[in-house]
Amino acid sequence: MPAKVVVVGSLNMDLVTRAQRLPRAGETLIGESFATVSGGKGANQAVASARLGAQVSMIGCVGEDAYGGQLRAALLAEQIDCQALTSVEGASGVALIVVDDNSQNAIVIVAGANGLLTPGVVAGFDAVLAAADVVICQLEVPMLTVGYVLKRGRALGKTVILNPAPATGPLPADWYSSIDYLIPNESEASALSGLPVDSLESAELAARRLIAAGAGKVIITLGALGSLFANGQSVEHFPAPKVKSVDTTAAGDTFVGGFAAALASGKSEAEAIRFGQVAAALSVTRAGAQPSIPFLSDVQAFNAS
Ligand code: RIB
Question: For ligand 1, atom 6, which residue shows the shortest CA distance?
């Protein structure tokens, strides 16, 4: 039986333009291309976990608009269980994304239906949560809901992962004791810890501060610098595989989904981190959110090469 991952989080339709560079305030740029692509941090992490070997259920909300149908269909196409994906009146979540020639991006999200994923809606799918080995959350749904899921996941004895993205400041202090793995990127680690994070050394300081706040284990993803794992006892650096970057959108999501799938399947933390890193590295070689996420066979082929 494949391990079971439950993702509680967002689904967005990504409206993606490519341009030579990101626009400045007040500036109009001529873009190179436009595409609508299924995304949203929750849905991306669900797709990553499914493509990378786990059996996945998604708890979330989509609007009763055309995007809602497309977002649901994208998950169903990955054999993701959508019994807990609720259609609500109004618009689905959207993300306006610009990607430049250096593969950097800028993203504005509008929550839409994601904002209607209340604790009450999640509580209605408690049996789905109870069936999980690993529960994953991000911060694109209401904070009250995230807090509920972390605590309920802990009470049910699940492995609880929080990807605190996007982060605007410190997390509520009472969340930490419910989190097994906190997985921020540099800017999120900085927002959470109040420390600048732009190097391995500064990431280590931030990780120690987050552990002191009560996080069980912290993995800070650092792009080309790899990732830094810390628990109460030790700190370990995992260098990133070298690849040619085309678009970094959903690289963090691919890492989180891949890490969760590998961990749930019984791999060690170190193996799961390396597995997530290879998956994330492969995702940056391709454009878009969900279309860029690799399959288990891609990761295996990379590791064998
Ligand atoms: O992490 C990438 C995702 O962030 C995009 O798919 C977009 O929807 C935003 O949520």
Answer: 39
Secondary element (H or E) of residue 187: helix 186-193
Query: In this structure, what are the phi and psi dihedrals at residue 5, rounded to the nearest 5 degrees?
Result: -115, 130
Confirm whether 253 is a catalytic residue. yes
Token couple for 156: 């049910």
Positive or negative, the CA dihedral 283, 286, 287, 293 is: negative
Q: Which residue type does 17 have?
A: T
**3-state secondary structure (DSSP) of residue 71:** helix
Residue with tokens 């972390």: 150
pLDDT digits (tens, 9 = 90+) for 38-56: 999 999 999 999 999 999 9
Cα of 130 from ligand 1 centre, angstroms: 27
Residue type, 21: R
Domains with residue ranges and CATH for the chain: 5-9+40-91+113-304 (3.40.1190.20)
pLDDT tens, position by position, 164-217:
999 989 999 999 999 999 999 999 999 999 999 999 999 999 999 999 999 989
Band (pLDDT 50/70/90 cuts) for residue 288 is confident
| Amino acid making up residue 249 | T
Measured at the CA of 74, the angle between CA 38 and CA 116, to 5 degrees, comes to 70
Judge contact between 148 and 155, C-beta under 8 A: no
Instruction: Give residue 103's pLDDT.
Output: 84
From ligand 1's centre to the CA of 107, what distance in Å?
8
